[in-house]
Amino acid sequence: MATEPEAAEPVVPSLVDRYFTRWYKADVKGKPCEDHCILQHSNRICVITLAGSHPVLQSGKTIKSISYQISTNCSRLQNKGAQFLTELAPLCKIYCSDGEEYTISSCVRGRLMEVNENILHKPSILQEKPSTEGYIAVVLPKFEESKSITEGLLTQKQYEEIIVKRINATTATS
Amino acid sequence: MFPLTEENKHVARLLFNTGTCPRCIFRFCGVDFHAPYKLPYEELLNELRKFLKTGKDELILEVPNPPPKKIRLQELEDRNDNMNQNGEGRLSVIEDGSIASKNSNLNVCNVCLGILQEFCEKDFIKKVCQKVEASGFEFTNLVLSVSFPPQLSVREHAAWLLVKQEMGKQSLSLGRNDIVQLKEAYKWITHPLFSEELGVPIDGKSLFEVSVVFAHPETVEDCHFLGTICPDCFKPAKNKQSVFTRMAVMKALNKIKEEDFCKQFPCPPNSPKAVCTVLEIECAHGAVFVAGRYNKYSRNLPQTPWIIDGERKLESSVEELISDHLLTVFKAESFNFSSSGREDVDVRTLGNGRPFAIELVNPHRVHFTSQEIKELQQKINKSSNKIQVRDLQLVTREAIGHMKEGEEEKTKTYSALVWTNKAIQKKDIEFLNDIKDLKIDQKTPLRVLHRRPLAVRTRVIHFMEAHYVDAHHFRLYLKTQAGTYIKEFVHGDFGRTTPNIGSLMNVTADILELDVESVDVDWPPALDD
């Protein structure tokens, strides 16, 4: 299973390390291993990304196309009338060449600021750089909720524990 | 020389009998030269009485001695009382409006409510000047701003209608413009008194303003009938302020028909019991501007104070380190700091520095020699090694425009320490030197997206110069258009700035250090040393 390549001894903290806190949601909507990673900036902006354990990021998967589940009225480059999302709101659907479809959810409540059009044009970016260029969307939580939104999410450590549990469970059953 | 002539007599008598003071009588008789107004009140009263006492068929004006019992008089309160609180005089006036005894200069004028009686005379002016001197302002001239209660306009209007009617009997006309304005006459009298007392000229363009505000609580309701008759002249009140502003009252008076006015308001106006009160005497100096250029040598200093939830996150700030000294020396109330753009907390500003301008609000001290400004600059520079200033100088308000121009239009040069994930060689960065006027598209960086609208900005990187450091580092010098986000150009901001150094070199790049090398604005003018 391909996990997010963590530098064993980071010489320099990456851009994400410096400005963001990583939060996770595992098995989103009950679907096994459909893990999301929310990058929370110190200014409370959240970048929705796929966690390394997500099926789409596993070797052998090819993405056929991605489509955003947003009403056509939502103008992506204006703040006026931007959508307010709940945790379960779908952001986009990923269609793979093997017929599998995956829905990516917001995982945090907030205003949808932007969706990443780069992955529409070149879906492979999502797989090559899921934590940066391959992000899904940007969501801005309400000021009052900026701390509470992380209450339902897993820390890096908690996420790693879940991964370990899964591996053990798989090994046990195999 | 007494300015009234025979033809003024009817009007003068009418006004005098109905309780109008000599100076207001002059105004309504069109006396438009200063000298008569400046004579002392007592003298004017006597001269007026003499003037009116002629012939057989006029009213008896002389009050016999002893005064009839009907007249009750009371001296004005001791004028040494605090004028700010209560400048009222207390008087009683007989209902039929006959004049008081010549011992009293105490009828409160039914038109000016005392403004052209005691409030334009030396004693009051002296009181105001004492307050001005006590305020500690440094000034070489001043502008006087006086504010009268709106009901004065109503009374003026009533007196005008009265006089117009009287003159009509003699087939003479009287336009509003034939009457000398109250404020004008007031200034004729008081300006020389202020100048003499404070030793400076009155100048309409002066930055130093002395403002005196009068009120007359007793007659506040005089205006209210206008609100009923001309409601559209009065806008809803904001902040508990009265709807009856001077402007609104004037507008209504221009609109209202004469007959309607006379039905609602007595012509002549009745005599009040008290003179105006002095609501406030304030001094203020217009803002002065100081400009210069600053260098920033700390990677831990914000431009403005960084305070979250009342807690200061980082010690001090660029603006405080510069402005605090200016606040003290100029004895100003507050400051507004602006600069030609700004840098992040962790970015140094080298080279000639970044232009800034500071507006000092209500400064008490404003005159400085260039030597004194130089010393002030040295003082600022000695007090901190985090910032240094140069070219410190006094400038005009136009300074702020230069700041904005510099921020939006002028180029800047930077030096960045770049890290790459892949190992590089010298030849891998040489191509950067050949790129000229590179256009980049920058979406609003994630780090400011919480407070700026999402947009795409096209910017130009004019040229670059790359200096190899080691396998994972190089120094990049670049000259860019104003408003370019340098950090995002280096690390790409999740692919939202394109192209970026990473995409140009096909690596993952990050920025470790950033310095501003120059801000290409040739303002403020460079000073020697």
Describe the structure.
- The complex is a heterodimer of chains A (174) and B (529).
- Chain A is α+β, with helices and mostly antiparallel strands.
- In chain A, 18% of the residues lie in helices and 27% in strands.
- Chain A has four helices and nine strands.
- Chain A has a six-stranded antiparallel beta sheet. Chain A has a three-stranded antiparallel beta sheet with strand order 4-6-7, with no helix packed on it.
- The longest helix of chain A has 18 residues, at 156-173.
- The two termini of chain A are 15 Å apart.
- Chain B has 529 residues and is of the alpha+beta class.
- In chain B, 30% of the residues lie in helices and 22% in strands.
- Chain B has helices spanning 9-17, 22-28, 35-38, 41-52, 122-134, 151-169, 182-198, 224-229, 246-255, 258-264, 318-330, 370-383, 399-409, 426-433, 486-491, 501-505; strands spanning 143-147, 208-215, 277-285, 288-296, 307-308, 311-312, 334-339, 347-361, 387-395, 412-420, 436-443, 456-470, 473-480, 497-498, 509-519.
- In chain B, the strands form three sheets. In chain B, strands 4, 7, 8, 9, 10, 11, 12, 13, 14 and 15 form a ten-stranded mixed beta sheet that branches. A three-stranded mixed beta sheet of chain B has the order 1-2-3, covered by helices on one side. A two-stranded antiparallel ribbon of chain B has the order 5-6.
- In chain B, a hairpin with a 2-residue loop joins strand 5 (307-308) and strand 6.
- In chain B, helix 1 (9-17) packs across helix 2 (22-28), helix 1 (9-17) crosses helix 6 (151-169) and helix 5 crosses helix 7 (182-198).
- The radius of gyration of chain B is 35 Å and the shape is elongated.
- The two termini of chain B are 64 Å apart.
- The A-B interface holds A 11-12, 14-15, 19, 41, 43-45, 47, 76-79, 113-114, 116, 118, 125, 129, 132-133, 135, 138, 140 and B 419, 443, 446-451, 453-456, 472, 491-492, 494-495, 508, 510, 512.
- Chain B: Residues 109-283 form the Pus10 N-terminal eukaryotes domain.
- Chain B: Interacts with components of the microprocessor complex DROSHA and DGCR8.
- Chain B: GO terms for molecular function: metal ion binding; primary miRNA binding; tRNA pseudouridine(55) synthase activity.
